[in-house]
Amino acid sequence: MPLTFIETAKLPRKPSTGQGEATEILNEALCGAKNGRGMLRWLKPGEAFSPEAGERHQLVYLMAGKGAITLDGKAYDVARGMGVYLGPAETATIEANKGAEMKLFHLIVNRFSK
Fold first, then answer.
1. Per-residue pLDDT tens digits for 51-92
2. What range does the domain containing 72 cover?
3. Residues 107, 51: contact at Cβ < 8 Å?
4. Is residue 109 included in any domain, yes or no?
5. 29 in any annotated domain
């Protein structure tokens, strides 16, 4: 497989209704990834992101900023370098602190059948 270099800074950011801005950095069109997608997401102060639950595995990693991740109704303070793994049907809400922007890496891997 050939090496693929993706210039993430040149990819367009798209607004996501009430959930900041996002750009896909890993998908089939960009680099041939067939079983997953990767996105960068930016949240402004007070904005929140809730990954959709489904038959897939997800990783949400905090690249910059501070905020809270809510799991099963309990909020956990998070900062750069922290994140959460969500298995099939699990969900969370990630919210940027007031006065702080947040940058997230969101990886989605489709559930594989046995």
1. 988 888 999 999 999 999 999 999 999 999 999 999 998 999
2. 37-114
3. no
4. yes
5. no
* Span 3-10, average pLDDT: 74
- Name the 3-class secondary structure at 9: helix
User: Residue 100 contacts by C-beta under 8 Å, 6 or more apart in sequence?
Assistant: 45, 65, 66, 67
State the residue for tokens 């900041």.
20
Helical H segments across the chain, by residue range? 28-31
Q: What is the CATH number of the domain that holds 69?
A: 2.60.120.10
What average pLDDT is seen over the chain?
86
Number of domains in the chain: 1
Place of tokens 């402004």: 44
Question: What pLDDT shows up at residue 39?
Answer: 87
Say how far apart CA 68 and CA 90 lie, in whole Å: 17
- Is 95 a member of any domain? yes
CA 10 vs CA 3, 6, 7, 14, 58: distances in Å:
18, 9, 6, 12, 25
Q: Is residue 16 part of a domain?
A: no
